[in-house]
Write a structure and sequence with these properties.
The chain is of the alpha/beta class. It is 58% helix and 19% strand. Helix 1 (3-44) runs antiparallel to helix 2 (47-73), helix 1 packs antiparallel against helix 4 and helix 2 (47-73) runs parallel beside helix 6 (196-223).
């Protein structure tokens, strides 16, 4: 296990412990509130208090379900649950929603019974007000604690429990108002205020229904894999800033507990190397994680189809798709027909017959896919697979290097040249040098100048097999020169 894996595992354990601890405290708080409300509700005969006691009882059951669900949801993925157990939290929230709605049905039925058919005299007491005041304080405190941990760990179950306690606080406030009005009814003999208690219970039920429907919709969306609101647009904006990505053809998002799963298909430039494509994919994933840190991201990259008018891109695309390594791809048009030249790298251990078969297959594929191509000339080159040992070229190497430097400096367009080296590599003579040129020269002209230098080198020393020229703008420091890649002529 790597250091990152151990860190992630430790973070996961701490997250699970914090979620379970806050859920356990909620169980204890809800149980205590339920017993206190039930006692004063039976003593006073207040339906408002009894309905609130049933609400707290539901909070107690819901807190137990929450505690059990967060323990299961934090279990790691296994062969039976490859996407983890996060949806257990959403299932828990759905169960809590159903329990809330059942409680509301009982409260509404009992309230209507007391309002229209069988009035019950309510006797407010100091204990009733004291218990309801404690309930408001405890419920508000627990709601904030649960909401904080729910946001921190993106837990649907804890979010549902926080909503339970917040509605408990509001409903307790409504019950207190109802008790005050009932007390005022007896104090100043206002009979119609005596119905405030069942009306308060109906208000509590309405509040619970409103919260339940909002929570239920959210949990059902998660259970049926509905994309979280705004997630797709946020991901599209994130990957739009990544170079080489032309489109996000498909963005699929779903939520499971605190885990967001992203399935994404990107269209990339058709001719970039595999390693480059992988770096683009990694960068796109990093951009997504900046927006959604806990996201599980799967990205499939596919090449963009070359434009019809871009013949060279089509040529490279055909070669790369057929798993051929090509370079120096060029084409010219003669009498309305296209002639193609390219270099094909093949295994150096192949015999000519086998290598020629590969070249023929590539030529046939190009002709089949690209209309207008008349001739394809393929130059075979051995694919370099290892680092060759190098040594001194010859005894008069210093004189040869000086002569090459003088030849290069006479070339038009060159400001200066230095770091001329001659090496013997694998029995071949390799020349390397740095050439300084004007910074504003177009790269096409730079290439022409380096080709002229190579031509003059080979004319002076026919034994040279390869020339590697590093072109640099005038004014660059020696340090940056040494770190720059060479431009081969």
């Amino acid at each position: 296990m790597t250091g990152d894996d151990r860190m992630n595992a430790m973070t996961g354990r701490l997250s699970s412990q914090e979620k379970q601890a806050v859920a356990m405290r909620s169980i204890l708080a809800a149980g205590a509130l339920m017993l206190m409300k039930l006692a004063v509700g039976l003593e006073t005969g207040s339906l408002g208090i009894l309905s609130d006691a049933s609400h707290s009882g539901l909070d107690w059951v819901a807190a137990g379900v929450t505690y059990y669900s967060v323990r299961l949801a934090d279990k790691p993925a296994d062969p039976s649950h490859p996407f983890g157990h996060g949806k257990i939290e959403s299932l828990s929230a759905f169960i809590e929603t159903a329990l809330l709605l059942l409680t509301c049905a009982w409260i509404v039925a009992e309230s209507l019974e007391r309002l229209f058919f069988q009035p019950v005299r309510v006797q407010p007491s100091v204990w009733a007000f004291a218990v309801m005041g404690i309930s408001i304080w405890v419920s508000a405190f627990r709601s904030r604690a649960l909401a904080r941990v729910a946001r921190k760990h993106q837990s649907p179950a804890l979010e549902a429990d926080a909503l339970h306690f917040s509605t408990d606080a509001y409903s307790s406030g409504v019950v207190v108002l109802g008790l005050v009005l009932v007390w005022a009814s007896g104090r100043w003999e206002i009979p119609w205020l005596g119905r405030a208690d069942p009306i308060a219970a109906l208000v509590v039920a309405a509040m619970i229904v409103n919260v339940s429907l909002r929570l239920g919709r959210k949990t059902v969306d998660t259970l049926v894999d509905a994309a979280p609101e705004g997630a797709e647009a946020s991901i599209a904006r994130a990957i739009a800033s990544v170079e080489e990505v032309f489109t996000g053809d498909r963005i699929r998002v779903r939520q499971s507990g605190n885990q967001l799963f992203v399935d994404l298909r990107l269209t990339l430039a058709s001719n970039i190397p595999f390693e480059h494509a992988q770096s683009v994919v990694d960068l796109a994933e990093a951009k997504i994680r900046e927006v959604f840190p806990n996201a599980d991201v799967v990205i499939r990259a596919s090449p963009r189809q070359p434009a019809r008018g871009d013949l060279l891109e089509q040529l490279r695309s055909v070669a790369h798709r057929e798993n051929f390594l090509v370079h120096n791809v060029s084409a010219f048009e003669l009498n309305g027909r296209v002639h193609v030249d390219l270099d094909l790298e093949v295994d150096p251990n192949l015999k000519l017959e086998a290598a020629h078969q590969q070249a023929t297959r590539l030529e046939q594929q190009i002709r089949a896919e690209i209309a207008g191509v008349e001739r394809v000339n393929i130059h075979l080159e051995p694919l370099v697979k290892s680092v060759e040992p190098a040594g001194r070229a010859e005894s008069n190497q210093a004189g040869m290097e000086q002569k090459l430097k003088e030849i290069a400096r006479k070339n038009p367009g060159l400001v200066d040249c230095h770091s001329v080296e001659v090496h013997s590599v694998g029995g071949n003579l390799l020349v390397r040098l740095h050439c300084t040129m004007e910074p504003g020269l177009p790269i096409s002209m730079v290439h022409e100048i380096t080709e002229q230098i190579e031509f003059r080198f080979r004319r002076a020393f026919p034994q040279i097999s390869k020339v590697s020229i590093h072109a640099e703008p005038q004014g660059e420091t020696e340090e940056s020169e040494e770190s720059s890649p060479p431009l081969s002529a």
